[in-house]
Specification:
With 391 residues, this protein is an alpha/beta fold. The longest helix has 29 residues. The radius of gyration is 22 Å and the shape is globular.
Length: 391
């Protein structure tokens, strides 16, 4: 059975109720073991008037579907929902081919970015890694690799829901608000492989932002321990996405997010610098200093970490606004290596402030950009944003 709504003939005041009916129909198809199929007819588009695709677990992204369909409805689109293919069991031998992104089209419309099999697999993986269901994830996601940051997050936002058991590889905590407008923090552990893993799967939930907060090695003489670093751009020496996103593709932080972060740091009168962050897969890069300096010098980087460029590169691939807020914890090039006693004192002194800044910026985004951050830099030159202007 197909449910349709021609929003060119639906009064504005009834749009919300019609969109709810369409989303309910998608969830009903999902419950019946089918991939709900969504068809969007856009009369204003000369070159791409009909868009369609299938979804898995629409309940996990209902807030996003409601928002995107609302935009399309405001333009007078005709939107239809019907049961699609029978959902593939995640143990089916055909799953591997269905989730293969080797020839993935980066220009696919953002609402239809993922195949339903990929969505279903990632939603299951999120439960496995974080110990929390996909429905608990909020629009604003903070990533860290320190349990101390999680402790401060939970102290700042009491009542968070967390993992269903101890020992999860990437435990997540969620401060849930209506419309998924709260904040989620995930302790992703250390390294670019973990950063890729979590962002691969978070991407299907379409968060409004992903902000990496962590520590870094400062490279400039005038940086002090505790200074903050905002990444304007990245040098990708992590290696985990080179085959999927050529190193020739520039990756930068979201401009609006960086502006809000800088405003917060300025208001708090905190020392910070904005510049290039160098991400490596080698935690002991200073043990190969001659080789590292050959790369660090020409890049003019001001900090080294192990996750930020990976998060930003996957955010670019999947069209998710990202930014990085790091604190300088050591300066190995200036006789200040990371030593245990010094590091413990630094973590105690900095962690609350670090988390408070991230939460404050997420709240500002919620207030200023309820329809999502500007992301025109995350789409191809020949690809209009779905539901807004363009061919």
């Amino acid at each position: 059975m197909t449910l349709s709504a021609d929003f060119s003939a639906v009064p504005d005041g009834e749009h919300g109720a019609e969109i709810q009916r369409l989303c309910d129909a998608m969830e009903a198809a999902d419950q019946a073991g089918r991939y709900p199929q969504l068809t969007v007819e856009r009369p204003w588009s000369a070159h791409n008037p009909v868009l369609e695709g299938e979804f898995a677990c629409p309940r996990a992204i209902r807030w996003y579907l409601e928002r995107e369909l609302g935009r399309l409805a405001a333009r007078g689109a005709r939107i239809s929902v019907c049961p699609g293919r029978e959902a593939l069991d995640l143990r089916d031998p055909g799953l591997a081919r269905a989730v293969d992104e080797t020839r993935w089209d980066l220009r696919r419309k953002k609402l239809f970015l993922f195949a339903p099999e990929r969505m279903a697999l990632s939603i299951d993986r999120l439960q496995h890694y974080t110990g929390t269901p996909a429905e608990s994830f909020q629009r604003y996601v903070l990533l860290t690799n320190y349990s101390w940051h999680v402790e401060e997050f939970r102290a700042a936002l009491p009542g968070c829901s967390g993992p269903d058991s101890d020992g999860r590889q990437m435990p997540a905590w969620h401060h849930m608000l209506p419309g998924r407008s709260g904040v989620t923090m995930v302790n992703i552990g250390v390294g670019p492989s973990n950063a890729k893993t979590i962002t691969d799967h978070l991407a299907v939930l379409r968060p409004d932002l992903v902000l990496m907060i962590g520590h870094c090695a400062g490279l400039r003489n005038h940086q002090e321990i505790g200074d903050l670093v905002l990444a304007a751009a990245y040098v990708r020496d992590d290696g985990v996405l080179d085959d999927m996103l050529p190193l020739s593709v520039p990756v930068v932080s979201n401009h609006t997010l960086n502006t809000l972060l800088l405003g917060e740091l300025t208001a708090r009168r905190l020392r910070s610098r904005m510049g290039i962050v160098y991400t490596t897969a080698n935690r002991n890069w200073e043990l190969h200093l001659a080789q590292a300096e050959e790369r660090l010098g020409p890049s003019r980087a001001l900090a080294v970490d192990m996750e930020s460029a990976t998060v930003a590169a996957n955010g670019f691939r999947y069209r998710i606004p990202t930014a990085t807020l790091l604190a300088v914890s050591d300066k190995p090039l200036h006789a200040q290596p990371k030593l245990s006693a010094d590091a413990q004192s630094f973590y105690v002194a900095s962690r609350r402030q670090h988390v408070e800044i991230a939460i404050s910026v997420a709240e500002k985004v919620r207030q200023l950009y309820p329809d999502g951050l500007p992301v025109t830099d995350l789409r191809s030159a020949d690809e209009p944003l779905l539901g807004t202007t363009g061919p």
